[in-house]
Write a structure and sequence with these properties.
The chain is of the alpha/beta class and 362 residues long. Helix content is 51%, strand content 14%. Strands 1, 2, 3, 4, 5, 6, 7 and 8 form an 8-stranded mixed sheet that branches. A two-stranded antiparallel ribbon has the order 9-10. Helix 8 links the parallel strand 7 and strand 8. The longest helix is centred in the middle third of the chain and has 27 residues.
Length: 362
């Protein structure tokens, strides 16, 4: 038994040394970022914070370069030029049509992806489009991974996001040490296209949770239950969820998560609907949530925050769900055994013993 444990410990140490060496090697690579919105902006900072070499950035909105005016970044005039300058390209773009526009044409990304260059796409987009693009990239001599991220903007800024990673396994293994450094949880899902399926369906599930959460809070308030008490009760019970713990405070703040627009959420809903249609799966609950979100988008506009749908109920019943205790609330994410555990900040809350989880035994 002791010999077995010693060997296992030795092998784990060897693996850790190999991963460390791979991480160092990746830190010599030139990296380019296309798209400097919420994802791209945070990605640049997370890569730099962990010692990776970002050398080139590109965005159609040149005002976004001002955040990096103190860096000596190259700002090439096309996706092709950026790809030709670097070893690894990251993209983080809003919609499938934006990914397509960056990819295609004489000055498009595809033309620069040669000689084993790697493209990692963080965009939440059409998985069939991604599969088609990957075939073209490989034929050109490049390599591609899809890597949608999940967890929310605040988690992204802190490097606490989860990444779903798909594509050729050898390529995924090559870049995983870097992704492990800049994110908290990396899950390899298999062949190209398989990462976007759980990402899109996860986003659709948030709509169901959010709508049900708004109704539950409204019933509780009209029944005379304090909003903070309601939050604490559900958080400690079987009705809890990631959305409840993050969207609930945003609902009680009245901010409804301004870091992600409802237009982007509705885009993800449409992608999920297309998947369900292709595979002939009726989606009565998800479909209802999709229509409720469409209604909210038409009412409040494309740029409204993604959790705003319960506001329709607040207005219909002329009852708001504000709670002053959440005015300064914020959150971070802790990866515990592969699950995203929310840590709350800016509110008075009972803290668990830091060793409580590690000491728990089944």
């Amino acid at each position: 038994m002791l010999r077995h444990i010693a060997r296992r410990t030795f092998l784990q140490a060897q693996q850790n040394r190999l991963l460390s060496a791979e991480s160092v090697s990746l830190k010599t690579k030139k990296i380019g970022i296309i798209g400097l919105g919420n994802v791209g902006n945070a990605l640049v900072k997370n890569l730099e914070r962990t010692g990776y070499k970002v050398t080139s950035i590109l965005d159609v909105d040149k005002e976004r370069y001002t955040d990096f005016s103190d860096r000596n970044f190259s700002t090439p005039d096309s996706p092709r030029s950026l790809a030709e300058e670097v070893d690894i390209v990251f993209t983080g773009l809003p919609m499938p049509q934006h990914v397509k526009a960056v990819f295609e044409g004489d000055d498009g990304l595809l033309e620069g992806l040669k000689d084993g260059k790697i493209w990692i796409d963080h965009s939440t987009t059409d998985y069939e489009q991604t599969e088609d693009m990957c075939e073209l990239v490989v034929a050109r001599g490049g390599r591609m991974l899809e890597a949608p991220v999940t967890g929310g903007l605040e988690a992204l800024k802190k490097g606490q996001m989860t990444v779903f990673l798909a594509g050729e396994k050898s390529v995924a293994e090559e870049v995983q040490p870097m992704l492990d450094d800049i994110y908290s949880n990396v899950i390899y899902t298999g062949r190209m296209g398989t990462a976007l399926v759980p990402k899109v369906l996860s986003n659709m599930l948030t709509c169901v949770h959010n709508l049900a959460m708004g109704e539950a809070f409204m019933v509780a308030k009209r029944a005379g239950v304090d909003m903070r008490t309601m939050f604490d009760c559900i958080r400690a019970s079987s009705g809890n969820s990631f959305v409840f713990e993050t969207g609930g405070p945003m609902l009680m703040q009245g901010t409804y998560d301004p870091s992600f627009t409802i237009a982007l959420q509705c885009k993800d809903n449409r992608l999920g609907y297309q998947m369900a249609t292709k595979h002939k799966v009726p989606i009565e609950i998800l479909g209802h949530a999709m229509q409720a979100y469409n209604k909210a988008m038409y009412k409040y506009g494309d740029d409204a925050p993604c959790y705003i749908a319960p506001k329709m109920l607040e207005e219909a019943l002329q009852t708001d769900l504000r709670c002053e205790e959440f005015t300064n609330w914020g959150y971070s994410i802790q990866n515990v055994d592969g699950s995203s555990v929310i840590r709350h900040h800016g509110i008075d809350i009972k803290r668990s013993d830091k060793d409580e989880l590690s000491n728990f035994k089944v």
